[in-house]
From TrEMBL, chain A:
Protein name: Multiple sugar transport system permease protein
Family matches, as CDD domains: TM_PBP2 (cd06261)
Domain of life: Bacteria
Classification lineage: Bacteria, Bacillati, Actinomycetota, Actinomycetes, Kitasatosporales
Natural source organism: Streptomyces pseudovenezuelae
Compartments, as annotated in UniProt: Cell membrane
TrEMBL record, chain B:
InterPro entries referenced in this protein's UniProt entry, alphabetically: BP-dep_ABC_trans_perm, MetI-like, MetI-like_sf
Family: Belongs to the binding-protein-dependent transport system permease family.
Native organism taxonomy: Bacteria, Bacillati, Actinomycetota, Actinomycetes, Kitasatosporales
Main localization, broad class: membrane
Membrane-spanning intervals of the chain: 30-52, 87-110, 122-146, 158-174, 212-235, 255-279
Methyltransferase among keywords: no
Pfam families in alphabetical order: BPD_transp_1 (PF00528)
UniProt membrane topology term: Multi-pass membrane protein
Sections of the chain in a coiled coil: none
Record's subcellular location: Cell membrane
Entry keyword annotation includes Transmembrane: yes
Chain ranges of the ABC transmembrane type-1 domain: 87-279
Name of the protein: Multiple sugar transport system permease protein
Length: 315, 295
């Protein structure tokens, strides 16, 4: 293992401009030669075209039709009707709002801040504590999504551990999954996803030269000032990539919420992926569900573009 | 005297300051340890619940000392219907898709890493873009498409889709690992007339064994835990992998058999945790893989 990834995001391996500098530019080859060279790419490209690009294209097509799940001879082209319907649909707007709340709470505030806090505490902590904490947080992350859903379902239930602790502290308990389902699933996502940010920030903090923080310390800069004026500016690229990846991951959370609340009670925790699923399968409106999916995909693609721009220099 | 007056300007040299800094550091280390342990306790509670409940004859939803120690929960779920068939399905599904992913990724990474071409950069940027697209969003159209081409409810269809969805990240990772193998090692083989394919199989891949292991295990772990893809693309209960069957089983029988639920969760999660530990060790501490993950 020569280049173990060291840093944030897929950018952690220093990609650099590839192996290019090491070898001289080969003399001009005949065209057939260069095509043969690209041949090994073909299985991957075919697979990606058929099973990723295909569905994305198909998505963009059926979003503009009234395709239904059953008993329909022909679907017809309906233009922007699905999108117009969506923006008048209170349930859709509710799902957009909940997705926003879920993303801001669990990704931007929760995973990102907690991940940074854990990573910077780990810089100072003693080794056994570091190993223990890392192990626990990462286990939460490696667990299959459905299992994580069950564990947090149990934790937040009326008879669950959280209320047991609140009772013990003489604080009012409640049925979290019923009263504040979006908060419960957001916390669940923080529980499950923080490890990623923690790993990204640990790698980023390790790259800051010791002399810089030590110099600031000697000059009397306190912990918060060092964090604000030195650490954060130095890891800003990692913050950028981490925020992008967290947000993209959070936008597509389905299983966790499905297992914990099924989007309920009512639609109080129905984020866009669950709304999309319900419209397409429970209401049999594939066309409408896909229109919602396309919106989600476009938002995801925009975030993804920002992410690629951040990493562009690395390719 | 002159010396002492210059001292404040080079504070690094004073022993008193050094010891004060050291004191402060010890205090800070203690504070950090305490803070981390509190956070770890919060993270650990659900994990402790699942472990204790799996051996508790009267498990409920709270973390509590077990009323006794029993393997009854494991006995109850270790049947073909509940555990073995779904786990075997998971293995076929994730194993097949992982194999396909790794083979395609290794082949694709070779020209990207070895030959200079104007297409490399746009191709890699597209791959990077695709790694972070929300796959969840395209599952409805994939379902509709699979119905049309008769791939719905088939293992091979699901395997192909799984492989395609994991492929961008696998290619990215594999290419970066491959860049770490010096090109000089291959040049001798090339002069002896070996083809690019031979040199990939005989020289490059063996040299990047740990890298291939990381890509393989990472792809497998991601698919093993994936719920939405098989949930959408498979319909027959006999074909369901563990991620879906666990949900169906415990959803249908009411969430009452908590001990069994916990036992099943333990059985289903252990393989991926062990596999992760394996690559974490290989990469020296696990933190190195950090950003590489989460395709």
């Amino acid at each position: 293992m020569t280049t173990a990834p060291q840093q944030a995001g897929p950018d952690l391996t220093k990609v650099g401009p590839g192996p290019a500098p090491h070898h001289p530019v080969p003399p001009r080859r005949p065209r057939t030669r260069s095509l043969t060279r690209l041949l090994p790419l073909s299985p991957a490209v075919i697979l990606l075209l058929l099973f990723l690009a295909g569905p994305i294209g198909y998505c963009a097509y059926i979003a503009f039709t009234d395709l239904q799940l059953t008993g329909q001879a022909h679907s017809s082209f309906v233009g922007f009707a699905n999108f117009r319907a969506a923006f008048k649909d209170e349930e859709f707007l509710n799902a957009v709002w909940l997705t926003l709340v879920f993303t801001v709470l669990s990704s931007l505030i929760g995973q990102n801040t907690l991940g940074l806090a854990l990573a910077s505490l780990m810089q100072r902590a003693s080794k056994p504590v570091r190993t223990l904490v890392g192990g626990i947080v990462i286990t939460a992350w490696v667990l299959p999504e459905v299992v994580a859903g069950f564990l947090l379902y149990a934790f937040f239930r009326r008879e669950g551990t959280l209320n047991a602790i609140l009772d013990w502290l003489h604080l009012p308990s409640q049925n979290w999954l019923f009263t504040l389902p979006i908060l419960a699933v957001s916390f669940a996502n923080v529980w499950r996803g923080t490890a990623f940010s923690m790993l990204v920030y640990t790698a980023a903090l390790n790259e800051i030269p010791k002399e810089i923080t030590e110099a600031a310390e000697v000059d009397g800069a306190g912990g918060w000032r060092r964090m604000w004026h030195i650490t954060l500016p130095m890891i800003r690229r990692s913050i950028g990539t981490n925020l992008m990846l967290n947000t993209l991951q959070t936008l597509s959370v389905f299983g966790l919420i499905w297992v914990m609340t099924r989007g309920g009670p009512g639609d109080k925790s129905q984020t866009l992926p669950l709304f999309m699923y319900e419209q397409a399968f429970q209401n049999s409106m594939i066309g409408y569900g896909t229109a919602v999916a396309l919106l989600l995909l476009v938002v995801g693609a925009l975030f993804s573009l920002v992410y690629v721009r951040l990493l562009r220099t690395e390719v | 005297m002159a010396l002492s007056r210059t001292l404040p300007r080079t504070p690094r040299l004073t022993p008193r300051l050094t010891s004060r800094l050291a004191d402060r550091r010890t205090t800070r280390r203690l504070a950090a340890d305490v803070g981390l342990l509190v956070a770890a306790a919060a993270f650990a509670l659900p994990l402790i619940w699942v472990v204790l409940s799996s051996v508790d004859p009267h498990a409920n939803l709270r973390v509590k000392t077990p009323d006794g120690f029993t393997f009854g929960n494991f006995d109850a779920i270790l049947t073909p219907e509940i555990t073995f068939t779904p786990l075997l399905n998971s293995l076929i599904l994730c194993g097949g898709a992982t194999l396909l992913t790794v083979v395609c990724a290794a082949l694709a990474a070779y020209p990207l890493s070895r030959f200079k071409s104007r297409l490399n950069r746009p191709f890699l940027l597209t791959i990077l873009f695709t790694t972070s697209l929300p796959i969840t969003a395209i599952m409805v159209p994939v379902y509709a498409l699979f119905v049309q081409v008769n791939l719905i409810d088939t293992m091979q269809g699901t395997i192909l889709f799984f492989a395609a969805s994991q492929l961008p990240f696998a290619i990215w990772l594999m290419k970066n690992f491959m860049d770490g193998v010096p090109k000089e090692l291959e040049e001798a083989a090339w002069t002896d007339g070996a083809s690019a394919f031979q040199s990939l199989i005989r020289i490059v891949l063996p040299l990047m064994g740990p890298g291939v292991a990381v890509v393989t295990i990472f792809s497998f772990v991601m698919m093993w835990g994936n719920f939405f893809v098989p949930f959408m693309l498979l319909l027959t209960p006999d074909q369901m992998p563990a991620s879906v069957s666990i949900n169906e089983f415990f959803g249908n029988r009411g969430m009452v058999a908590y001990g069994q639920l916990a036992a099943f969760s333990v059985v289903y999660s252990t393989p991926v945790i062990l596999l992760y530990v394996l690559i974490a060790r290989r990469l020296g501490g696990g933190f190195a893989l950090g950003g590489a993950v989460k395709g």
